[in-house]
Amino acid sequence: MFSKLRNFSEDVAKSLNDLTEQQNQAQLPKPDPLAQLQRNAKVLQAETPDSNQLTQPKDEVESDGLSRGTAPVNGDQSAPSSKQGTPPVGAPATVNLEELPPAIRSKMKKFAKYEEKYPVLLEAYKVEKKKSELIKIFENVLREHTPVSSISDAKTLVEYLNGLNEKTKLQSNEIRKLTKENSVLTFKIAKYEENGEDSLSRKMEDLKKENDELKSQVQEHRDEITLIKKEKEELETRVEDLGKVNGAVSNGTKDHKGEEEEDTEKEVDELKTQLSQKEKELEEIGTKLQAANKSLKEKSDEIEDLRDSMKDIGNDLVTAKDEIKELKKREKSDESATPDEQRTQLEVKLASLSDDVKSLKDKLAQKTKEAKDLQGKITSLEDQSHTEQLANKQSEDNLRKDVKTLKKQLQEQTEKLDAKEKELDAQKGERVKLEERLQELSKFKSNDTSYKLEISSLQSNLSHKEETIKELRSKIDSLNEDNTTLQAKIGKLEKSNNELQANYMESLKNKNELLSKQESFIESEKSLNTQLSKLQREKQEIRNELEKTRSSLDALMSEKSSANNDVQSYKRQYDELAMKSKEYNLRIESLEDELSESRNLLQEKTREGGNLRRLLIETDEMMKQKESDHKLELKGLENEKTELERRGIRMVKKKQKEIDDMNAVLNEHKARIADLEERLKGMVSVSHTEPTADTDYSNSELQSQIDTLREALSASSSKVKEYEKLNVTLKKLNEENISKFERLSKNYKLLTQQYRLMKDNESRRGSAESVSSSMDVRKSESLDEKRDKDKQSDTNIAYLKNVLLGYFEHKEQREQLLPVLKTLFHFSEDDENKFLVALK
């Protein structure tokens, strides 16, 4: 008995030494926590005895001392924590318990029970102590990598994981959108290359042709002006000759003079009318030339605008090339950091993007060449237009000079005609004197006929000039028509240029969006890497847990049929829940569609004005009814949600109870197996005294029982795994349904708020319309739009404030929030470095 006490004291001393050694090791520099958790995974899987099954030993007074005297021996042999310093098994034989008094005997029996339980409890204490240390390490890891501070904050961890899942979903959706936008951009670029190049070349050729035609027309006008000048000079010479002839005729007879003077006066009047007509025609030609010069100036301005736009396009193409190079560099740097699972998908996407980039580079090179060619053509056209403008200016100056000289000549001729009229009056007085010279006038008859022939020739020339003037007018009309066609073409070119600029701006916006999305993808890759590491750890833990369950029970075989029935009922309930969730989703989608339709109707009705007030009142009533219906449906959905949660909780509780019962049965069977093993050992010790046949028969029976128990344990462990998997799937489905319902309720609240705002705006607009005119309505609409913009700006400011405060308060989450700040404030690499330096 005293040897047992000594062994007990030695075991206590050794356990205390072990604890001190563990504390000293804890003070030493700690290794990597992740590696430590992986090494001690089996410690977490180790099971300790249930506190409900343990009972405190009491004093016992019984007569059968031999049967109970063997218990401490078996307890010493089965203790896993007994060391090499323990005495042999037959040591207690030196003391006879029957010789001791009954009080001491009961105390010794109680002490034997304590001695049986002590090694088990000590081992359990060590395991639990190690588990608590591993839990602390796990909490430290959670604090470093997640916003969770302890295991009790399970809700925050679930929310964090759900947020990561939502981020991955959003990123996948953004990747799909980017691929679609990329395909649309490539299609637009191909169309622009097919249509834009042909249209530009055609327009340039048309402009060249029109420029050549204008040049030829200007030269024809110049030739016609020179011909008119020559004809005018000839007319002036002939008028002078007529004046001389009249002077000579005045010296002739008075009878013939009167007739000739009348003829000459008529001819002079006709010549005056012809000169005035030609002056008018010259003025019209001058105005048309001025209009043509204005159109040429406008075309030159348009050509300069096109040239500036081509320069801007070239600069934008250069910047696009540089940005494409930077994107390639980033993609190369990101390829090394991507995980193995996503690397194949990203490589395929990068290959497609690289092909797109190569095609875009080729297209950019072609477009730069075409832009250079166009610039050369534009410069040549500008030179030609400049020379034409100079020639037109010179021709205008010459025409103005000619018109001035013609006016001066007309004034001189009118003055001469007045003088001639006075001379004719004087000649009438001298008619009596000239009668004596009738004989001399007969001689001049032949000259008079020649003069008449000359006048007829002049009239024919005048008719010919009138025909030429008509031809010039027809040409001017054709020039005006050509000018209108040119203006229409210029308008088309301007429209196409505006469309190209708009497409270019859209491409720039898409490019900026792609850059921001690429940064968000980089962040998502980091988060996915952390998730992969966590999932790998969880996988190892699951494998360790799978190795844990090795024994089975007979009672679970009888419960198999009931468990299968329960599983089928759970499956049916799950199918019903899934169908109900689908129906609720369809209902919610229909409600969202109805709300969007009602919103569009309200927006259209606000534009119609006072004539549609009755319709607005009817729609308000309809929307109120729909709101009441939606509220009733939401209440029904909430009731169904609560019922589903109650069912899920009941299911989980049932499963937990079943699992606890199974664990209890497992522990009982483990205890039985331990007892059987102890009996086997006792039988081996007693085998020297009893015959061998009985021992072999008992051993075979015990081994067969142990095998059957093990087979039953393996089957029951598989069932337990299946039940746990079903429980996990049901929990996930319940959580997904709850999250979906919460999202739908949030969307419904937002839609109701928007609808109330729309109703308030409509009531304000209706009151303003009854008081003021349509201009007041527009002002109120602009004020409402400003208010909405102010609200949006306030919400944006609040979001930015929360992000900045979260970044400065939570130092552990700065790596996760830094890319968000990049995308919000459009930080470049230099801005990011400056920001980090300022924080340090």
From TrEMBL:
Compositionally biased spans, kind Polar residues: 17-27, 75-85, 377-393
Q: What's a Pfam family in this record?
A: GRIP
Q: Boundaries of each GRIP domain copy?
A: 790-838
Segments carrying the region annotation (Disordered) are: 16-97, 239-318, 361-401, 761-791
Q: Which SMART domains match?
A: Grip
Q: Where is the composition biased (Basic and acidic residues)?
A: 269-286, 295-318, 361-375, 776-791
Descriptive protein name: IMH1
Origin organism is: Candida metapsilosis
